Automatic annotation (TrEMBL), chain A:
<dbReference type="InterPro" id="IPR000515">
    <property type="entry name" value="MetI-like"/>
</dbReference>
<keyword id="KW-0812">Transmembrane</keyword>
<feature type="transmembrane region" description="Helical">
    <location>
        <begin position="231"/>
        <end position="251"/>
    </location>
</feature>
<dbReference type="GO" id="GO:0005886">
    <property type="term" value="C:plasma membrane"/>
</dbReference>
<feature type="transmembrane region" description="Helical">
    <location>
        <begin position="280"/>
        <end position="302"/>
    </location>
</feature>
<protein>
    <submittedName>
        <fullName>Sugar ABC transporter permease</fullName>
    </submittedName>
</protein>
<keyword id="KW-1133">Transmembrane helix</keyword>
<feature type="transmembrane region" description="Helical">
    <location>
        <begin position="92"/>
        <end position="113"/>
    </location>
</feature>
<feature type="transmembrane region" description="Helical">
    <location>
        <begin position="28"/>
        <end position="56"/>
    </location>
</feature>
TrEMBL record, chain B:
<comment type="similarity">
    <text>Belongs to the binding-protein-dependent transport system permease family.</text>
</comment>
<dbReference type="InterPro" id="IPR035906">
    <property type="entry name" value="MetI-like_sf"/>
</dbReference>
<dbReference type="GO" id="GO:0055085">
    <property type="term" value="P:transmembrane transport"/>
</dbReference>
<keyword id="KW-0813">Transport</keyword>
<feature type="transmembrane region" description="Helical">
    <location>
        <begin position="170"/>
        <end position="191"/>
    </location>
</feature>
<dbReference type="GO" id="GO:0005886">
    <property type="term" value="C:plasma membrane"/>
</dbReference>
<feature type="domain" description="ABC transmembrane type-1">
    <location>
        <begin position="92"/>
        <end position="290"/>
    </location>
</feature>
<keyword id="KW-1003">Cell membrane</keyword>
<feature type="transmembrane region" description="Helical">
    <location>
        <begin position="272"/>
        <end position="290"/>
    </location>
</feature>
Length: 310, 305
């Protein structure tokens, strides 16, 4: 299936021919494309191909010996490693919670500020502030707030709750990371929902109101159907971002306690960078890549469904 | 691509139609907005305010509203401590060099590529565009480790002659992020909305393609330039995983990675909050000045297809 955009190869009513110019258009086109193509091949296409190749070798990051083909050894090791399964499990749990919760909260925020009322821009700006703040800073800030004697536990103590050591307790650590991740990114998806909301024609709401539909029925029959495309996009981007979870873990917990917050990317970095086992890390990356591919195939499925309905 | 011009814009804010008229509903909505503003805003206020307090006061203030207020023994000690502890100016300079070059070169390379794809007919055009768009689904993290290995194999030529390996350099922090499929896509989409009659006219006057790109299309592409600049600046400034792996020397380290220094030995939360505040300040300042552009850029990343 072609991607969403089809190149405008033959614009109607545009009688341009290839030879009207003294310059050769084809040469010029390639000259303008060459920098981008060389860079994308070198830093995107080749590394993707390398992921497939290196996963079956014992390549090391810095090694005097050339990499050797070792068949499925990396995968055998990977699939028998409890740390890998735990990391995969954590990543999937993280994604399963983040995807619905974050998109729902983002939609709620968008509905809340989708009004032409004085001051609404102020709220939109405040909700958006964490998005421009780097995850590094957000992680340090929340790490501080999550201290056993930190801001969150002091606030909880005020209402009589004895807060745990959020990041030090295997039962709460992943949950704590989920909360701050939503806090940081939800503003971004709020803005995307909002632009989706604003493409829904106001007449539809007027018509629905005339038919006696209340706010909930208007949402169900006008808003939600109008947001279908936005929803697909938001679900897919949150899912891919969720599977890429790394920064928060690296800064706040280093995968601990007891692997409770270890993730797929964290393991790839630990083995491929710290332990310099590029081959093994590539095998992890390949599994990650397979997951992302499956997820985007699901997206394709939904997109096709939508186009067929039109 | 210009759906916005075709769809009749909602004059009445949709969800508001009739729904919020009840005073109780209106009050609840207003209260909700304020509570959420506190949830999203207060942690950042806490960070900035704490950066001006000694550690013992930060902890003493936690139990009261003072945690969020610039009251008491305010001091610049934490900031001075930051300058003492790390080569701060160097880190900031490195972040600026990397971000500015990534954004600047990216604007040039990606807009040229998009121009060729949008304006000039040639064989293979459709395939190239399809491949570029297909790469959008590959998150950087999937290929970061193979790319790390690959970076170590690449050759580089400088005054000292030919060398192998890009690790621990500026270029490894910049060059891989110049060409960007999403930037090409955004420019392509924008260029397609610029009437072709304009370049036809320039061509009749004898302008070549480079000239049309430089003098006709790019001057009209301001909004696309702003969007791409913002969408490439944020990840460049905030990047962490990649510089963490490819930079070993202190002289080349960007500000985000520098935060790791503060987690070792004698943790001072005041200093950490001070460091966090200054490395966030440039982005916050840009965001506050260009709010509308920032928000519409992020929103436009969602209006695909």
């Amino acid at each position: 299936m072609p991607p969403a955009v089809t190149p405008d190869l033959a614009p109607a009513g545009n009688p341009r021919s290839r030879t009207t110019l003294g310059h050769q258009p084809v040469t010029v086109a390639w000259l303008m494309l060459v920098p981008a193509i060389v860079l994308m091949v070198t830093f995107l296409i080749i590394p993707i191909i390398l992921t497939f190749g290196l996963a079956f070798t014992n390549a090391r990051l810095i090694s005097p010996e050339p990499a050797r083909f070792i068949g499925l050894d990396n995968f055998t090791r990977l699939f028998s490693s409890p740390t890998f399964w735990r990391s995969l499990q954590n990543t999937v749990v993280f994604a399963l919670v983040i995807v619905p919760v974050q998109s729902a909260i983002a939609l709620g925020l968008a509905l809340l500020i989708n009004a032409k009322v004085r001051g609404v821009n102020f709220f939109r700006t405040v909700y958006f502030l964490p998005v421009v703040t780097s995850m590094v800073v957000v992680s340090m800030l929340w790490m501080f707030m999550y201290q056993p004697n930190g801001l969150i536990n002091v606030l909880l103590a005020k209402i009589g709750i004895d807060g745990p050591d959020w990041l030090g307790d295997p039962r709460t650590a992943l949950f704590a990371i989920i909360v701050l991740s939503i806090w940081q990114a939800v503003g971004m998806h709020m803005v995307i929902w909002l632009s989706g909301l604003q493409t829904i024609p106001g007449e539809l709401y007027e018509a629905a109101a005339l038919d006696g539909a209340g706010p909930w029925r208007q949402f169900l029959h006008v808003t939600w159907p109008g947001l279908r495309q936005t929803a697909t996009f938001i679900l897919i981007t949150i899912t891919i971002a969720a599977f890429s979870l790394f920064t928060q873990v690296n800064i706040m917990t280093q995968g601990g306690p007891l692997d409770a917050t270890s993730t797929v990317v964290f393991q790839a970095v630990r083995t491929g960078f710290q332990q310099q086992q590029t081959g093994y890390a590539s095998a992890i990356s390949l599994v990650f890549f397979a997951i992302v591919l499956v997820v985007s195939l699901i997206q394709r499925y939904f997109t096709r469904d939508k186009e067929a309905r039109r | 691509m210009s759906t916005a011009t075709h769809t009749p814009k909602a004059k009445v804010p949709p969800a508001a139609a009739g729904a919020h008229n009840h005073p109780v509903v209106r009050a609840a909505v207003a209260l909700g907005r304020v509570l959420l503003a506190l949830i999203f805003g207060l942690p950042l206020v806490f960070m900035i305010v704490s950066s001006f307090k000694p550690d013992n006061q930060i902890f003493a203030d936690l139990a009261s509203i003072n945690a969020f207020l610039p009251l008491g023994d305010l001091t610049l000690e934490n900031y001075l401590g930051v300058f003492d502890r790390v080569p701060f100016a160097r880190f900031m300079l490195n972040s600026i060099i990397v971000s500015v070059l990534t954004v600047g070169l990216g604007l040039l390379v990606n807009s040229m590529a998009a121009f060729a794809l949008s304006r000039i007919q040639f064989r293979g055009q459709k395939i190239i565009l399809t491949v570029i768009l297909a790469t959008l689904i590959v998150p950087f993290e999937t290929m970061a480790l193979p790319l790390l290995w690959w970076s170590n194999q690449l050759p580089w030529i400088d005054a000292n002659g030919l060398s192998q390996g890009w690790l621990d350099t500026y270029q490894i922090q910049i060059v891989p992020f110049i060409a960007n499929a999403f930037s090409i896509y955004l420019f392509y989409q924008y260029f397609d909305s610029i009437p072709r009659e304009l370049d036809e006219a320039a061509r009749v006057d004898g302008a070549n393609w480079f000239r049309i790109y430089r003098s006709v299309v790019m001057p009209l592409a301001g909004p696309a330039v702003a969007t791409v600049a913002i969408l490439t600046f944020l990840p460049a400034w905030n990047s962490y995983l990649w510089p963490l792996m490819v930079v070993q020397s202190e002289e080349l380290r960007p500000a985000m990675v520098g935060i790791d220094y503060f987690k070792q030995l004698n943790v001072s939360w005041g200093q950490i909050m001070a460091y966090a505040t200054i490395i966030t300040a440039p982005v916050l300042a840009l965001f506050i000045s260009f709010q509308r552009a920032f928000i519409s850029s992020i929103a436009s990343s969602g209006v695909k297809g």
